């Protein structure tokens, strides 16, 4: 009887250790970056710096970075910076990297290959990054040919097959297609948590605040379920549609 109890305790212990490892193995943690030097070159060659570079190229793939993309990018840089000892300085450097890389499409392959070299043993993290980039390219409600081509190139260099990429592209495409809802102008104001008497500046402030609150977080996505990006995507899309309706009604 004693042996059975001991065996049961060992099994339970192994289960919880395995569960804890499985839950946290793909999650970024502040301790990973505790000793990171405040150096732009080192940051640019880190996995997160390389990801920001790819994000910049995707955001500019169709020739411009629209309002929602800019808001999501700013929030994402804030999320990434929060992992480091000096977030404000890191965000400034990440913004510099972003601004440089968005106008440098020629080195896309090299950047993607460098990221793969760092993450070749972590398919889960690579998949989450590709999914995030697909989500970013779709977030304005449309997917241009140049955006799709660029995301597919990145996905290829990050080790995914055409079949893998087709599945990811279709999944996120369906999220955005199915998120379009008919709503009234009153519902749009209610969604943004403001009244119809709000000023244009108050409308913009409410919109940015909500997007900041519910935006897809690449850091959280690494350890989250497959539903995380879908839910965050749908929430942002709903907020954006309400904002666009209000802007159109006001001639903003």
Low-confidence stretches: 2-26
Specify the overall morphology.
Answer: globular
Biggest beta sheet attributes: none
Measured distance between first and last alpha carbons: 76 Å
Radius of gyration: 21 Å
Residue-averaged pLDDT, rounded? 83
Number of helices: 13
Helix/sheet category:
mainly alpha
Tell how many strands the DSSP assignment holds: 0
Please trace the helix and strand order, writing H or E for each element: HHHHHHHHHHHHH
Q: How are the secondary structure elements laid out?
A:
Elements lengths: L1 H23 L15 H5 L2 H13 L7 H15 L5 H15 L6 H12 L3 H16 L6 H13 L4 H18 L5 H7 L8 H15 L3 H4 L5 H24 L2
Helix pairs in contact: 3-4, 3-5, 3-6, 3-7, 3-8, 4-5, 6-8, 7-8, 7-9, 9-13, 10-13, 11-13
Task: Based on the model shown, name its key terms.
252 residues; mainly alpha; globular
Write structural notes for this entry:
- The protein has one domain (36-250).
- The longest helix is centred in the C-terminal third of the chain and has 24 residues, at 227-250.
- It has helices spanning 2-24, 40-44, 47-59, 67-81, 87-101, 108-119, 123-138, 145-157, 162-179, 185-191, 200-214, 218-221, 227-250.
- The protein has 13 helices and no strands.
- The protein is an all-alpha fold and 252 residues long.
Offer a quick outline of the entry.
By secondary structure, the protein is an all-alpha fold. Helices cover 71% and strands 0% of the residues. It has 13 helices and no strands.
């Amino acid at each position: 009887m004693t042996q059975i109890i001991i065996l049961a305790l060992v099994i339970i212990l192994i289960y919880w250790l395995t569960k804890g490892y499985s839950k946290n193995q793909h999650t970024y943690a502040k301790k990973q970056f505790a000793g990171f030097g405040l150096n732009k070159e080192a940051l640019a060659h880190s996995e997160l710096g390389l990801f920001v570079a790819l994000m910049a190229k995707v955001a500019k793939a169709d020739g411009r970075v629209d309002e929602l993309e800019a808001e999501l990018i700013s929030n994402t840089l804030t999320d990434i910076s929060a992992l480091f000892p000096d977030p404000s300085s890191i965000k400034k450097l990440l913004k510099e990297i972003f601004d440089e890389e968005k106008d440098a499409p020629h080195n896309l392959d090299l950047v993607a290959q460098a990221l793969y070299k760092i993450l070749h043993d972590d398919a889960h993290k690579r998949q989450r990054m590709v999914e995030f980039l697909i989500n970013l390219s779709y977030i304005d409600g449309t997917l241009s040919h140049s955006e799709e081509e660029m995301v597919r190139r990145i996905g290829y260099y990050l080790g995914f097959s055409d079949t893998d990429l087709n599945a990811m592209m279709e999944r996120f495409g369906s999220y955005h297609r199915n998120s379009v809802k008919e709503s009234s102008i009153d519902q749009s104001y209610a969604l943004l948590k403001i009244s119809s008497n709000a000023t244009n500046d108050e409308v913009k402030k409410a919109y940015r605040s909500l997007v900041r609150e519910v935006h897809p977080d690449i850091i959280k996505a690494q350890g989250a379920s497959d539903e995380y990006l879908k839910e965050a995507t749908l929430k942002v899309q709903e907020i954006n549609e309400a904002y666009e309706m209000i802007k159109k009604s006001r001639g903003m």
